[in-house]
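Changelog excerpt

This revision adds worked examples to the README so contributors can see how folded entries look when concatenated. The first example is reproduced verbatim below.
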Amino acid sequence: MNTFFYHDSWNSGCRHPFGAVPTAGRVRIRLEAKGGETATVTLRLWQSNGGEKLVPMAFDGSGYGCMLTVPERGCLLWYYFVIEAGGDRFYYGNNRDNLGGVGELRKEPPPSYQITVYDRQMKTPDWFKNTIVYQIFPDRFCRGHDPAVRLQGKKGAVIHSDWHDRPYYCKDEKGAIVYYDFFGGNLAGMEEKLTYLQELGIGAIYLNPVFESASNHRYGTGDYYNIDPFLGTNEGFAAFCAAAGAKGIRIILDGVFSHTGADSRYFNRFGTYESVGAFQSQASPYYDWYRFKNYPDEYESWWGVDDLPNVNETAPSYLDFIIRNDDSVLKHWLRQGVSGWRLDVIDELPETFLRDFYKTLKATDPEAVLIGEVWEDASNKISYGEQREYLCGYDIDSAMNYVLRRMFIDFVNGVRNAAETAAQYMHLTENYPPEHTYAMLNLIGSHDVERILSVLGGTETDTAVAKKKLRLLSAWQMTLPGVPSIYYGDEAGLLGGKDPDNRRTYPWGQEDAELLSWTKTLTALRNDLACLRTGRYLPLYGTGDVLVYARAIEGGRDVFGNIAADGLCVVALNRSTREEHTVTVHTDGLIGGTLRSLTGADLIVETVNGAFTLTLAPLSAVILRGEESRRKRCGVLLQPTSLPAICGSGTLGQEAFAFVDFLAAGKQSVWQILPLTPPLDGDSPYFSRSAFAVNERLISLEVLRDWGWISSRDLAAFYERAAGGGDVQAAKDGLLQTLPALSALSGERRDVETFCEANAYWLDDYAVFVAVADHFGTTDWTQWPDDIRRHQAAAVKYWSGKLHAGVARVRLLQYAVHRQWADVHRYARQKGIVVLGDMPMFVAHDSADCWAHQEFFQLAENGRPAAVAGVPPDYFSADGQLWGNPLYDYEKMAADGYEWWVRRFAKALADVDEIRVDHFRGFAAYWSVPAGAKTAAAGKWRTGPGGHLFAAVRQRLGDLPLVAEDLGSITDDVCRLKNELALPGMRVLHFHGKERTDRRFSFDTEARCLAYTGTHDNNTTLGWYHDDLDENGRRRLREALGCAADVTDDALMDAILAYLYSRRAETVIVPLQDILSLGSEARMNRPGIVGGNWCWQLASAMAYRPYSGKLAALAYRYGRVNAED
């Protein structure tokens, strides 16, 4: 068969959603197919403890797909593909390692892929997901003073007088334990050390069994209702729970319910208790709890240990005793103050018992936690031939994560490399529902395994390397999803082999200070940073010895939708014992800005183009933190020409002031505009006849009337003519030609003269340029007479005099429009609103700037461009884009101290408060296309002025409030320049929303950036959603927003605006069209299309005024309101 088949369960194109699925949810499954003949493909679906179903898959031209609706009750589903083609049958299923992801084609039935279906109502306790657990083996933690405790009266007990003795089992010749050794650790000791645990950052204590028992480990329960007298009393236990609770520490008990002790009041083999036990009489009320083979001496016991007789967990009286009675064991200890249970050997508990226990626990205390002892993948454990479904929502909240512990150790000890480890962890994430993933008890030590320092190679004489490994492991443990569990003493450097050596006493006074300090550092970080607890887990790098991942919260909500502080951390691990590794991590824009070390080292890492480079010492762990916004703000993008007007384009009259009022009412602090410069043909403000002048079309005739420059009668006549359907702009231009001459002005004359003097650098040339262009009927100055074409001083003087009236008119109009804009700008400032302007990188050839400063441009002798600007060929255009703008001669500009740029920035900062620098990448390198080339493909990259230009400008003007437009294909040199200048960049939902490595779609931003729904060059966001995204893209966006498939346009845009406002970015900007939920008809510009652009305009202020309340609510909700508000 020549067809190539492919399925990757981690790829949303093959299976969506990723991982576990809630009940009654839908799953799209697809098998890609390339080349070869058409086949018949069937999905073989199997439900555990259920049956088989064959689902036909439809061919769509590039693969075979189907949509599944999963069962309404939690279960496990398994699938593979059956392929029939050319008379042969093939199978496509899971890979040989059963890890999920990319599968394999086989001739025989393959391993299946797993889908965990979980009860959509299932929820694990939030407090538990956010805590750190400390496991205590009670006899070995601390011996406190308690007058009620007498270490006597327990048969077979040997008491150590020296706390630092080694534990030891006293066994007979057959290996049976005849004496248990005790060290006297007790409740009083634990209570004395609560402050230590609080300082360690502990939020919950998991206690190995504390009930009365003959053994030191107490897994052979003697009395479920009594605390072992060696530990204390029932009253003392309640007091301990209360004292712990006062310090914010909860208590979790170890429940041993698959067996009891032979020496118990229930079995009472040795007659220790006054009760009649099952061993003593078949009339005992406990007789049906046990399974006797040959009464009374032969009975079922735990792994053949006679001291631990198994119980019949489904016996009604036992269920009542442990679970159902009003004062059942479960309920009794909850009332005494415990917050949950850990169930010993859960796989030996029948499903009926376990689910009854879980249900009753949650009914009694919904916040109580239930942890199961599971050593394998908890989602698909097979116990005694039965498929268990622990994580389907009916059994447990958490499991002891021994699978993860094995991953930890295998990676650190060099058994598996980073790529293999990352795949194993992804597989676990795929199988576990998120509620369980984040509630798994992530242990690296316990009472059932050797001490971790010993496992890592530590010995009594040498722990140096093992300690470094443990530091690395602890960093990993504390920064993964799930609940870290510290086994008492591991943080202090305890060694220990197999049981009982792994249960040594805590080394009070002999702790390893370095390890203890490191552990406190890590626990403090985890407790301080929500992103390390319930943030997203995002794999970034996994090769050889090095593993790198990020934990992130953006939007003020964690992965469960709970309110949580934004944060981003990067964790990097090098497990090599000898090699230093330098790695470059590419994050595809996930991470930007500066990363700073949180783990002691004075390390600062700068990201460049979404990538960063780290050098990691052998056996090291580095935790870095990204920047967060210090002050957030929000704004609206609207060009003044889009303001409503009685006729014609928007102006700087009353509607501009009304728009500022709207922004203020909406608690907006930024008004972003496009360039105010006068456009050439096509109305593009990015292709204008001056880089300094302001568009005269913005002049408000109503304001001129108020100044007395035009009469009310003339204005009314203009309105009448415009209403007749004529050329409004021509009529307006005609009216402006009737303005009084400067000599006729009285109060404003000196103001006009002052303005002209202050702006002579550009205004004198601009006025002559416009007058001469009007005279010759063209702005193409290369067609003018040679002397004025060359901007010779005598010719400029001559034409300035010859066309004096026209030159004066231009000056007067520029005064008028600048004055009107200054009034609007001043009003905005008074309202606490800054204006973010826009500076195009290039100027037009047919501009006053190029004509007046020909020496600063790459021009031929005839004045035509020798080379022009453009964009190289890319994915979107095989020929690139030929813009045609003349290129700067930076060498000559540098020789002049970049005076033209200094003047340009100074003028811009007089007009606006902040400047967006368009096509910022051109300052690092620009695409130079030879004049006459038919396409941009003939161009080459040329080095731009870089930081030298900005240094010259800053030397004259000081620091500049700039924003770098860094959209499109941006190279590292551009990003380095942006970083060097400490400029914020831009992020746009339309471009930068991505499916990340955790298989979630998100729009990720950095603190120092401006985030947008879209820009003037994009479709409106609603138009983008409907017209530009495919169905898969629309679905991913809706899922990120939490919207249903049938969401209305208004509700969708409300969700998008809220999502944008929630981002990490210091500034968010929304085009007004998106606030109004407008579609493609309201688009401002369509790059590459001539005509019909830049003309969108509001019909009335009533179109936007009602939205101020919505914007204000968003600004308050997401902390984007000015401090004074």
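The second example, added in the same revision:
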Amino acid sequence: MPLNGIRRQIRGAWLEDEATVVARLRAGLGLSPEHRARIATDAAALVEELRTRGRPGLMETFLAEYGLSTEEGVALMCLAEALLRVPDTPTIDALIKDKVAAADWGRHLGLSSSPLVNASTWALMLTGKVLGEKETAGWDVTRTTKRLIGRAGEPVVRSAIAQAMRVLGHQFVLGRDIGEALERAKGMEERGYTYSYDMLGEAARTAADAQRYFLSYSKAIAAIAERCDGHDVRTNPGISVKLSALHPRYEPAKRARVLDELVPRVAALALHAKNAGMGFNIDAEEAERLDLSLDVIEAVLRNPDLRGWDGFGVVVQAYGRRAAFVLDWLHALAGELRRRLMVRLVKGAYWDSEIKLAQVQGLPGYPVFTRKVTTDLSYMACADKLLGMTDRIYPQFATHNAHTVTAVLAMAGKDGDFELQRLHGMGEMLHERVRQKHGNRCRIYAPVGVHEDLLAYLVRRLLENGANSSFVHQILDEDIPVEHVARDPAAAVAALDGIANPRIPLPPDLYGPGRRNARGWSLADPPTLAGLESAMAEFRHAAWSAGRGDGAVAGITNPADRSDFVGEAVEAEPSQIEQALASAAAAFPRWGETPVADRARCLDRLADLYEHHAPELFALCSREAGKTLADAVAEIREAVDFCRYYAARARAGLASRRGRGVLVCISPWNFPLAIFTGQVVASLVAGNAVIAKPAEQTPLIAARAVRLMHEAGLPADVLHLLPGDGARVGGTLVCDPRVAGVVFTGSTETARLIERAIAEHLAPDAPFIAETGGINAMIVDSTALPEQAVRDILASAFQSAGQRCSALRLLCLQEDVAPAILRMLQGAMRELSIGDPWDPAIDIGPVIDEEAKAAIITHCEALDARGRLIARLAPGPEHDNGCFVPPAIYRLDSIDELDREIFGPVLHVATFKASQLGKLVERLNGKGYGLTLGIHSRVDGRVKQITDRARIGNIYVNRNQIGAVVGVQPFGGEGLSGTGPKAGGPHFLHRLTVPAAADAPPTGAAVEGVRASVDLAARASALRALQDAWDRRRDRLRLLAKAAASCPSPARRIAEQVLVEAAPWCGDALTLPGPSGESNRLSLHGRGLWLCLGLDAESVLRQAITALATGNMVLAVRTEAIDALLSGLPCGDSFTWNGELDDVLSLPDLAGVALSADLRTLGNARRLLAARDGPLVQLVAGHPDPARFVTERTLSIDITAAGGNVGLLAADEP
């Protein structure tokens, strides 16, 4: 088959059905059952021999004791990953205490066969007890050691742990530089081994990184060349190269640039290696880079200067479903070029990240096998194939598995033209035993580099070999029978009930049977990308329309190219607004009585329609909203997720609730389909009629969405679209008393205007759900991995041209690492490309319009004048016809200098001292915004310190802070950033509905009393300061129940009833479903200080207990029951009141007011509250719904950042 035909096979097998791939591998395996049985028997004998006679290496012994199924093993991995790069001693001490003090080292003491491992355990146990807060009774050694440390100081512990981590790194790294590695290699070379050297270094972030790695490889080749004897690459040492280390944008989207820039670099290194007569291996990388890697490999191999050289090697990962076809392609390429290639077959190093990426992207399947045993089968089948290709391939089998080694030897027979390989520090006794018995060649793969660069390599090695299912872990565990350790993978696969691992759901099934994951499109897959580009081409010059009638017509042009006409929108006239309001109001009763299941089915059909029409929607998002293709894919997927999520929530939770009436949905231009859809479908499935007002800049997307909504079965008289000017159309809608509520996403200033209009014209209890802006920060301490932090800073600040509500505006760097991170950040920013987002290679498109561009540039010019510029990406002349703003980074002397949101690609940077972290969080809180916060730290205690104090709606740890996923990271802020509840969260539909048998608000007179005391404001501020501590108490309900017992009898019964009603809103954080490797939790918190103004004693008591139970402070009208309840509790105060609102509603620090009164009084109260500056204050009328008293916070943690996906590996253990 020609090369291009095999490439089509490779591409076609990317996500091929796992059972189909496995069946093909089993059929192609040239071993009879009897032959396989003999191999398994021989392998079992080898395992038994290794257990009884072998001397395991230190790392094998270490991993046998500290596997990743143990808390201690994970702690050591995290500690080793971070410690050696931390420059400041306070953070070093915090990191050591964080990882060592809490673990149970004592249970490992004396259990290892290695004296060194036992000695390390002893030291760790002592250190843990020294740093721990609790002492074991009778532990004299600990008390003695504490006294010793007290005299010697914490530097003793610090130095000891740092040295221990260096020793650990020494076991994995052959040398800190190539000279040291070559010297250390002599001992094994004298015993007959040879080496392949790997210069530590992962993906380059900057051009400087790539150049540094290139020079490192060049120097290493020159040094290794002196150890080469002759030109037989099989016996000479070699080098392994990572393509991603040689180019800062080694990504499929940058294919043209990569081929132009990277191929000459690799060819130069390869020629250098050829002249030395050494092997030159291209390391394997992530699955989505495979196609690009094959392009680079072929281009380099076709360089005529490399003709006749047999030392070029390629690493192939057997866990990939395309592995066998890749071998066919390499064999065919070698034949066409009339040379021999080296192929190193490995199991694979990125399994956990491949699983997660496929889940995140919503792919139909996985590019890797989901079981270790099927990967073992693939390895054996690929090995069999390689041994049949030795005319053009020199096979290199990298494995620590006794069965795999035995199988290779058996399949090779007398043909010894291959070699075995192992990692430095791993598999020593296995390979030595086999080499002595069979005399085969063995090469050691040895990393070279300083220990600070060890992270990625170390984590991959520990994950591969420290998991319970790995051979290295099992070989020393005598509780596991040798027959199991050496089992035949083909027989094991045949015995499976199903090929796919049932503990790892396919990406479409990620959220369970009630909700299908949104379909994804991988832009790294050439056929997928080509198909999208072809489908989108139909809409490259198409025009759309929105609105109808004789209103003002606005032409819509592409913000990336104002000469590109996208369509036109007709503004709704007053008569159309009136018609829509009347029609929606008339249709509401019928729609509200439509069964929930029928309404939900409409949403499911809409989701399917969105996916079917995705190419058109991608084109619209690009041309009308200036979105890159990657952002457009995310936009459509989020809209689909909203449909399916709200449909599922409605089926599960709306049986006893009904819609409110006609809701107005006002959506923004930055998510013109996703947020528009989320607002509308949530309101509709809840049983409301909807009038949708899209942003002026993006009405065409909204109009196309509404047509699809109607096609999905949502009635035209229930859903109306009114495009036009915000003040004219939106302003009219929010002032009409027929409107029952408003859902809004936009600026804080606009939200305040809408709330004032609602207070003046709508019912006093009309809901206003607002998600507004924020001064979003990211805190990066000195334990953060700079490469990860820079990756996430770039995405958070500059993706979507910084036009996301969640985008990073304020970067807070610990001063100890700020210079290094800023250097890397500047270099990485220079690699970004700005331009027409229709091109998949573009990273940053335009801002939405000239007004937005002018506002951003004015802000930047002011900072430029003050000399604050750190870096700016230079725009090109091709950007003159669009609204492009180049990304920029500015320095601030204080975070207080940034007092408003700059909605664009502008990042502000301030530094902080490690000792000032608590003050930093308080200052961020003091800004009043509370939308998103990013944290990069390896110290769990610091993360908890920040998350406990930060009044922020969405917090992200060790990942970027954009791209919240519906139902996984429900999105919305608090304070100046919004009212809640969170969009895409479990409580959103609740706010859009009322109980099916809702009671009318009370209409009696307020309680009598005297004017509020003059010190009430001071008491309010004092109570607000105590609220966080009360909110964190997990025993609130118990304390309140005890306090309620002191109330008079009728009040006691009421209190007990209210506590039962409030209990569901006071529990532990809710764990949300999501991709592997993430922790996503939604917690409920009190909003702050509530004013409880009841109609009578019972109303006040209900209000106060509801507020207190949900974590708030209260100022309540004084009654006998209230005074009895609050006596002895640090969470509230009472006062007497004469019913006048002006004084009490002007109190500072109010989060909400619970008021029982007539409609006139309620309306007056809402107007007074709306007139306040600062965050919008909640008004709760009538029966206090606990949902109104809480704010939601989402905490999303990338739990793989410091230690790989240990939990996912456990899913494959027997």
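Reviewer comment on example two: Residues 502 and 685 are 33 Å apart (CA to CA). The chain has a mean pLDDT of 90.
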